Amino acid sequence: MKHIVVTGAAGFLGSHLVQSLIHQGHRVTGIDNLSTGILRNLEEVMVNPRFVFHQADVTQPDSLDILADQQVHEIYHLASPASPKFYQADSIGTIWVNTQGTYHMLELARKKEARFLYSSTSEAYGDPEIHPQPESYRGNVNTWGPRACYDEAKRLGEVFCYEYYTKQQVSVRVARIFNTYSSGLRNDDGRVISNFVTQALTGQDITVYGDGSQTRSFCYVDDNIRGLQALMAEDKAEGEIINIGNPTEYSILEVAYLVKQLTGSDSNIVFLPLPEDDPKVRRPVIDKAREILNWEPKIALEEGLGRMIQHYRTMLLQERVQVQETSSNRC
């Protein structure tokens, strides 16, 4: 049984990873400052004796004191806002968690001789001039814009990982994660899939930014978590940056029509101005993941959306019932 530390444990990816690790029989310490994470995401594992949750900010050095006398085998550093809605609202905090927070977690890995996985992002490629994007592509990122706090902080986090790998001999691997979705994605998250499904199910207009011709590649969370664990486990992945994502590409307008179809929604599709620095295309080359990790995604977008729509529909119904009960009690 390994002792594994997961930062960002109450977030979307973090909570799914924690649940998977617990189900595999490991002991897990989850760390999250709850700035965007939600404790409800961890309800299933909170009662498990092999899970400990620590509310803390990894940008603060004393946040890791709880681990001072404990052996740690692996560290997944997932802490960071990931949606533009949230990382732009706390731009400085986003910079700090991916730089100072990454430094503190790498120091912990060095001291504990633990394996370390850093969750970077496809945003490291910026608005790419090479398509699709291999890990060797250095990106086209604007340092002076509303997305820079996330894009550039993640890129600097990768540099910290490189320095600790080459100079401190820390067993580091970096995952560049492409768009991920599932039923566990917050319906107020602000990302395209959660927006479309929530809008379709509630009868709102489905808002497409730009003309909808920009493309994305969507990976279901179960596939993503398999990829991250394979990346951590594989010895040959040490010192590597590897794309984790689904190489099947969709235009945003295609996704809007697919959500409308799968939900049976009467919502209108409306078009709004494209946000500044929004990438026009995004699709991973996953040759390294296939060769080194023997990994590739298995869940197609239509199947994953079906699962997500079913969950969101149930969740929205529960919210309506709670509102009605609260209103009745007040009367």
Automatic annotation (TrEMBL):
Pfam families to which the protein is assigned, alphabetical: Epimerase
An example molecular function term from Gene Ontology annotations: UDP-glucuronate decarboxylase activity
GO biological process: D-xylose metabolic process; UDP-D-xylose biosynthetic process
Compartments in which it is found: Golgi apparatus membrane; Golgi apparatus, Golgi stack membrane
Gene3D superfamilies, A to Z: NAD(P)-binding Rossmann-like Domain (3.40.50.720)
Cofactor: NAD(+)
Domain (NAD-dependent epimerase/dehydratase): residue spans on this chain: 4-245
Keywords assigned by UniProt, alphabetized: Decarboxylase, Glycoprotein, Golgi apparatus, Lyase, Membrane, NAD, Signal-anchor, Transmembrane, Transmembrane helix
GO CC annotations, alphabetized: cytoplasm
Membrane topology note: Single-pass type II membrane protein
SUPFAM superfamilies: NAD(P)-binding Rossmann-fold domains
Protein name as annotated: SDR family oxidoreductase
Organism: Paenibacillus barcinonensis
